[in-house]
Amino acid sequence: SCPLSSHCCGPSSAAPAMNCRAEVLEVSVEGRQVEEAMLAVLHTVLLHRSTGKFHYKKEGTYSIGTVGTQDVDCDFIDFAYVRVSSEELDRALRKAVGEFKDALRGSGSDGMGQISLEFYQKKKSRWPFSDECIPWELWTIKVNVVNLANEQERQICREKVGEKLCEKIINIVEVMNRHEYLPKMPTQSEVDNVFDTSLKDVQPYLYKISYQITDSLGTSVTTTMRRLIKDTLAL
Amino acid sequence: AMDTDLSSQDRKDLDKFIKFFALKTVQVIVQARLGEKICTRSSSSPTGSDWFNLAIKDIPEVTHEAKKALAGQLPAVGRSMCVEISLKTSEGDSMELEIWCLEMNEKCDKEIKVSYTVYNRLSLLLKSLLAITRVTPAYRLSRKQGHEYVILYRIYFGEVQLSGLGEGFQTVRVGTVGTPVGTITLSCAYRINLAFMSTRQFERTPPIMGIIIDHFVDRPYPSSSPMHPCNYRAGEDNGAVYPSVEDSQEVCATSFSTSPPSQCVFTVTKAHFQTPPPVVTDTLKVPVMGLAFSHQLSSSRLSYQPAALGVGSADMGYPVLFAGGLNAAHPHQLIGPGKEGGVPPVPSQPAHGTQADQERICTPLDGVHYSAATPSSSEDTETVSNSSEGKCGSPHDLLETIFIRKVGAFVNKPINQVTMANLDIPFAMFAPKNVELEDNDPMVNPPASPETESPLQGSLHSEGSSGSSTGNTHDDFVMIDFKPAFSKDDILPMDLGTFYREFQNPPQLSSLSIDIGAQSMAEDLDSLPEKLAVHEKNVKEFDAFVETLQ
């Protein structure tokens, strides 16, 4: 299925481009754990994909700001993770994850869906062509929502999902450690093609979050395919 | 020949990067085992002092220990920097949980740019370390420390020793960074047979009562570095602070500024996960000896408060363990290792190995030191004020005053009856009692009931009124004005408030009182033969009854 185009990019293909690596993670969680599990994964990825703010100086050099971090405890999962200390970034992720969770709960879904975090570069084209968005890394989290019968099962689920998330964090770190393709560090004029410079305290690589709700056959059933662009988020 | 390919400036830079990377690695690991949430702020303008563009605080004591272990060397082939995390229970048993290893192998990447790529990849590796330190089993254990165990760290340099981790330990790789002089690898080996030490078990056990004397453990390996608690904060030693990390031009780390505080403040971190806190039926008032206090790292200023033994007490829901012997001659002095890192002999301690082999809970200081964080605004912590006067008499008195036990609901001994000797008897109330004590005990013989209009009074209270205010349970809280909603009731000529107050402290059930219980049991036993005879006579009726049920 074709994703809706963003306001700044021309239609980009649904399949990752040649240089785009794709990672897929799968989790089974209880309904109330969806948000925390998604935030844990997304924040862990973004921790590795955010730098301090660049400050360009003369002669084409730049200095980098400092990224702070903080621990987050989950309420519904026996789990804790580290995220970048940036309220703007946290808000953006929570909004996206909240919409995903609502869509999962909505009708037409039997609790299966996936949320994707895509890092891309902008390639400016000359008028009348619009800019291209070229993804270079795509993270997909497949979610299966389970329903539990009693408190005992819920308690076991808290622990099990916690353990599973620990495995996911290790997986993410493994991927990050491969030191595979990363966009070249941009010049001042190019920085907005590589990084999201709109946040005041940190600078993640340009990213998009989208999600799909699937039925049990694994096909996308509704038109709830949405693309969230940071600029359009009411921050 | 290898080194000539690298410019001397690059080589210098690389060495510096590796050195500070090692120091930051230790900080991240130890801070992740402090038992509390870490929070640092992002800053858009570069300060030039945050290595690897990450806000990682430097705990001076930790840096000091790391530098001591490294002794001017850098991780190289066969020379790894290891941070050992272990757990030590209140009984003195310790167990290694994890070994974090920063190693160097021979695989060189000549093409890589030192000042740029290596630096950024080291930054990425530190982020991975931040993430991974939260997902090994020791993290959850360390978040719940302070009650029955503490988490300790030890830094050593040289060969990695993994045998203390037990069988079947697992390894997780945090990451690698290639450099022109070798590949840096960071990994963690962790024990997995923690089954008998699940955190659940710790939650259910009752709080520890009694002095926990640190008996020095013989280290199996002749390594020279002592153990440190992860959540113990070093105090000032007569104003001297540990030298800041930097000894070259570039400022690399924020150093703490220490100013003498006027008051000692303890930060107590509440339970973080959704498990209920341990049920504490007695609270101990113990002198704080500098252990098991969490602190808020997000404030950039730490106040250090030298404190004497018996400084007062922190009334906590999480009883504090303290270690270190009590020096009979100087009750104000904590027996800790001397400045050289050795340990002065402590009376009645088991024989211990060489100075170097000893576990060290407190840093070498003359007196008892613990640092207290400035009060944080985090909702996860509550600060408990504490007076900093250290007035206490002889050690014997000290021990007496230590264990003031707040009496719980089911104990029928008045407070002043609880002494050291009684502390090791659980369920003391069921022990054979001194009759005299019982007579004076209002729980067994409550005073005569006062006048009251309640018609229920007579039937419920055979021995007297519960309205007496001498019960110990009143200490727990005082009801000032009790106006319960919807409390008027037509049936009873009293409202809920009055009812509550009247029946708040019922006397002990007579069946629980051993004498009376024994008496009635004796009576029951005596009457048994009679009752049996009667039942036998009526056997036919019983049989008929049973028939009707079929």
TrEMBL record, chain A:
Q: Which UniProt keywords apply?
A: Autophagy
| The keyword Disulfide bond belongs to this UniProt entry's keyword annotation | no
Location comes to:
Preautophagosomal structure
InterPro entries reported for this sequence = ATG101 (IPR012445)
Q: Does the keyword Nucleotidyltransferase apply?
A: no
**One GO CC term, this protein:** Atg1/ULK1 kinase complex
Chief subcellular site?
other
Pfam family of this protein, just one? ATG101
Superkingdom, according to UniProt? Eukaryota
What residue intervals traverse the membrane? none
Stated family: Belongs to the ATG101 family.
PANTHER family from the entry? Answer: AUTOPHAGY-RELATED PROTEIN 101 (PTHR13292)
Entry protein name: Autophagy-related protein 101
Name of the gene = Atg101
Automatic annotation (TrEMBL), chain B:
* Compartment(s) where it occurs, according to its Swiss-Prot or TrEMBL record: Cytoplasm, Cytosol; Preautophagosomal structure
Organism of derivation: Donacobius atricapilla
| Region Disordered, annotated ranges | 332-356, 368-392, 438-472
Statement: the UniProt record of this protein carries the keyword Cytoplasm: yes
Which keywords does this Swiss-Prot/TrEMBL entry list? Autophagy, Cytoplasm
GO terms under cellular component = Atg1/ULK1 kinase complex; cytosol; phagophore assembly site
- Which Gene3D superfamilies does its entry note? HORMA domain
Please note every region of biased composition (Polar residues).
373-389
InterPro entries reported in the protein's UniProt record:
ATG13, Atg13_N, HORMA_dom_sf
Q: What is its main location?
A: cytoplasm
The text of the family note is:
Belongs to the ATG13 family. Metazoan subfamily.
Which stretches make up the Autophagy-related protein 13 N-terminal domain? 96-196
- Protein's name according to its UniProt entry: Autophagy-related protein 13
Q: Is Cytoplasm tagged as a keyword?
A: yes
BP-aspect Gene Ontology terms: mitophagy; piecemeal microautophagy of the nucleus; protein localization to phagophore assembly site; regulation of autophagy; regulation of cell population proliferation
Q: Where is there biased composition of kind Low complexity?
A: 458-471
